[in-house]
């Protein structure tokens, strides 16, 4: 007796709906995509109760006549493709012909539509797959689809809906993606987009915006800091047009949530592109941070396949390597050529007159703030202090010597050589002469605090420098430069230091013999399980050879990661720089600080340590004046 039956069409649709319609936000995504495919220039999305009660999408697109309107809700009906050939090179967002049928099988749906040629509109209602006949309606041209009580006949799925806030959050996210993908630009008209929840307008985006202003509206400033911290770059090579707005490292995030990648107007997730982005920020961000990025890619539709996932959010590139390298190159080049200094984020004073207090005190606070502002305008503090100005290179001026220290002349040979040893390299005579004429002690304007940070006065404020992070960066750059030219110089140890090595550690050393040679590290066998360090790089005098070599073996012997040669060398140099750098908690002499500041000016990318942490935080006088209510 046969056990197999053919499922009826409604069951088929419900099952398909499970793939396409995960939650209310999926409905919003599918409906808005249909509106865009219909050529709409204005879309209004209205939601009630996080989509549970109602989702309505109204557009001014091409519309459908009565016949098409009735057919659109049948499974596998589409106007976007006709033959299998059309599957190569899909230029519309939809093509699978299953969204409307899926939605109509799990909710109460009403579709109203009118083409420009028609005098009147038509409307159709479908209740969980049960279709009524078409009836006349009156509306302007375009299409409106209303979806009520999603999953009401599927209690198991309805139960999985989250709170109104959560579902609304997902809907807003879909809306954001559509809004970014369709922002106005010089060669493209944008979409006029509105999102309403329970009668309240959440977003009203005009087609007169530009991409920047749209980002500012979608990610309001105080919470995100996104829109004012973006670096823009563009490239058009090898059939790939790339426009990127890259968040500065200071606004990085703990997840990829703020990476918006669009391919020909479609929001996608792609592991090659994510990897390229991560690589582009290498050394600028700590490993567990993710940059904010808005990336818009345009390329021929024939160069990738969108038919790999029901929600079409993943694609398959025919030449993924090209996509990877073009994106990496474009982003990296811009980031390396940009000054990425970290600007201090001063706290917004709570309950301070002038700040927004509770509504009850707001009025009073405002009155006090106005009075104070008036007072300060009239009574600007008299500037009795000597006017400082930190001029780079020639004019380093002391604010106050570090506690208990008498500033000594930086030409004291003993100090200079001690510091050079500490800094890991003796400046060449050319490097030294660059800093003459001599810096007079009374011209210096810096100070070490907590034996860890250096405060330096600048033209428009002051910088706070993390001495370890900065020194690490400087040493790292020197090491990288030297090693690119040739191997590092090394010196023989007076007494070779011996250490025990495991068989796998010894294997790792053998495999990486070339790298050790480049680093100027000489190891010799000393017994069955013992080796000795015979020579060690001069640039790393400050590091303990034994400690360094042991950590190096650990790094080379790591089984969890397989680094290519370049990455491995980079890791080794990072480690070396960290070990050889001045530590936090180490008191520095005046001349040591001076040397550090001079080296900073010569460093290529002094604002970040090799691990991507900032070395310097800038404070501006203007911000301070604002904080102290002087302006
Ligand atoms: P697909 O978008 O994959 O073609 P859908 O089920 O989403 O499948 O839509 C079916 C068809 O209904 C579309 O191909 C299109 O012809 C028509 N349609 C859907 N929404 C609209 C709309 N807002 N305006 C005009 N036509 C629409
Ligand atoms: Mg569709």
Shape: elongated
- Biggest β-sheet description: 9 strands, mixed
Estimated share of beta-strand residues: 15-25%
* Gyration radius, in Å: 32 Å
Number of helices: 20
Ligands and ions found: adenosine-5'-diphosphate, magnesium ion
Low-confidence regions: 350-362, 378-437
**Class inferred from helices and paired strands:** alpha+beta
* Average pLDDT: 83
- Determine the fraction of residues in helical runs and give it as a percent range: 25-40%
Number of strands: 24
Report how far apart the termini are: 89 Å
Specify the oligomeric state. single chain
SSE inventory with pairings:
Layout: H1 9-20, H2 24-37, E1 42-48, E2 54-59, H3 66-72, H4 99-105, E3 108-114, E4 121-127, E5 130-131, E6 135-137, E7 142-148, H5 155-158, H6 164-181, E8 192-197, E9 200-205, H7 211-218, H8 221-224, E10 230-237, E11 240-247, E12 259-263, E13 266-268, H9 271-280, E14 293-298, E15 304-305, E16 316-317, H10 320-336, E17 342-343, H11 359-378, H12 413-423, H13 429-433, E18 446-449, E19 453-458, E20 461-466, H14 467-485, E21 490-500, H15 503-511, H16 513-519, E22 522-525, E23 530-537, H17 545-556, H18 565-580, H19 590-602, E24 616-620, H20 621-627
Parallel strand pairs: 1-8, 12-14, 17-24
Antiparallel strand pairs: 1-2, 2-7, 3-4, 3-7, 4-5, 4-6, 8-9, 10-11, 11-14, 12-13, 15-16, 18-19, 19-20, 20-24, 21-23, 22-23
Bound molecules: adenosine-5'-diphosphate and magnesium ion (MG).
């Amino acid at each position: 007796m046969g056990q197999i039956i053919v499922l009826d069409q409604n069951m088929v649709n419900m099952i398909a709906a499970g793939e396409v319609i995960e939650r209310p936000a999926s409905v919003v995504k599918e409906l808005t995509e249909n509106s865009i495919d219909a050529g709409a220039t204005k879309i209004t999305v209205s939601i009630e109760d996080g989509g549970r009660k109602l989702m309505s999408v109204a557009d001014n697109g091409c519309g459908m006549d009565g016949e098409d309107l009735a057919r659109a809700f049948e499974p596998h009906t589409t106007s976007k493709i006709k033959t299998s050939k059309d599957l190569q090179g899909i230029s519309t967002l939809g093509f699978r012909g299953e969204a409307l049928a899926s939605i109509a099988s799990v909710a109460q749906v009403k579709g109203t539509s009118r083409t420009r040629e028609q005098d009147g509109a038509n409307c159709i209602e479908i209740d969980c797959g049960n279709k009524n006949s078409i009836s006349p309606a009156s509306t302007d041209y375009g299409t409106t689809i209303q979806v009520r009580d999603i999953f009401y006949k599927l209690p198991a799925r309805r139960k999985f809906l989250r709170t109104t806030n959560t579902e609304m959050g997902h809907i807003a996210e879909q809306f954001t993606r559509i809004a970014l993908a369709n922002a106005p630009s010089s060669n493209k008209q944008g979409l006029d987009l509105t999102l309403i929840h329970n009668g309240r307008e959440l977003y009203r985006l005009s087609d007169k915006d530009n991409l920047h202003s749209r980002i500012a509206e979608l990610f309001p400033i105080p919470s995100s800091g996104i829109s004012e911290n973006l670096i823009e770059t563009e490239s058009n090579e090898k059939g790939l047009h790339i426009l990127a707005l890259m968040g500065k490292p200071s606004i990085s995030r703990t997840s990829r949530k703020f990476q918006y990648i669009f391919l020909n107007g479609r929001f996608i997730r792609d592991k090659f592109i994510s990897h390229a982005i991560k690589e582009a920020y290498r050394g600028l961000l700590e490993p567990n941070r993710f940059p904010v990025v808005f990336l818009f890619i345009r390329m021929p539709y024939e160069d990738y396949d969108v038919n790999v996932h029901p929600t079409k959010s993943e694609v398959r590139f025919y030449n993924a390597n090209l996509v990877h390298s073009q994106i990496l190159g474009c982003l990296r080049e811009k980031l390396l050529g940009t000054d990425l200094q970290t600007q201090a984020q001063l706290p917004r004073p709570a309950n301070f007159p002038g700040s927004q207090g509770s509504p009850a005190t707001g009025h009073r606070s405002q009155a006090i703030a106005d009075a104070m502002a008036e007072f300060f305008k009239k009574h600007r503090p008299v500037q009795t202090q000597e006017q400082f100005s930190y001029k780079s290179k020639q004019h380093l001026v002391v604010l106050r010597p570090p506690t208990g220290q008498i500033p000594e002349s930086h030409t004291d040979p003993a100090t200079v050589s001690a510091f050079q040893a500490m800094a890991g390299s003796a400046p060449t005579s050319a490097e030294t002469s660059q800093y003459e004429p001599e810096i007079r002690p009374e011209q210096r304007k810096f100070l070490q605090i907590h034996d860890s940070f250096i405060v330096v006065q600048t033209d428009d404020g002051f910088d706070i420098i993390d001495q370890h992070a900065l020194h690490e960066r400087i040493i790292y750059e020197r090491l990288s430069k030297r090693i690119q030219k040739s191997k590092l110089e090394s010196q023989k140890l007076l007494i070779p230091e011996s250490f025990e090595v495991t068989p796998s550690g010894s294997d790792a050393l053998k495999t990486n013999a070339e790298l050790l040679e480049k680093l100027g590290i000489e190891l010799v066998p000393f017994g069955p399980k013992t080796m000795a360090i015979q020579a060690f790089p001069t640039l790393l005098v400050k590091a303990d050879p034994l400690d360094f070599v042991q950590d190096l073996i650990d790094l080379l012997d790591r089984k969890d990661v397989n680094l290519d040669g370049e990455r491995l060398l980079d890791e080794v140099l990072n480690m070396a720089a960290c070990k050889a750098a001045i530590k936090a908690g180490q008191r520095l002499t005046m001349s040591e600080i001076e040397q550090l500041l001079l080296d900073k000016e010569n460093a290529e990318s002094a604002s970040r340590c090799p691990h991507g942490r900032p070395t310097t935080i800038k404070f501006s006088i203007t911000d301070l004046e604002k904080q102290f209510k002087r302006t």
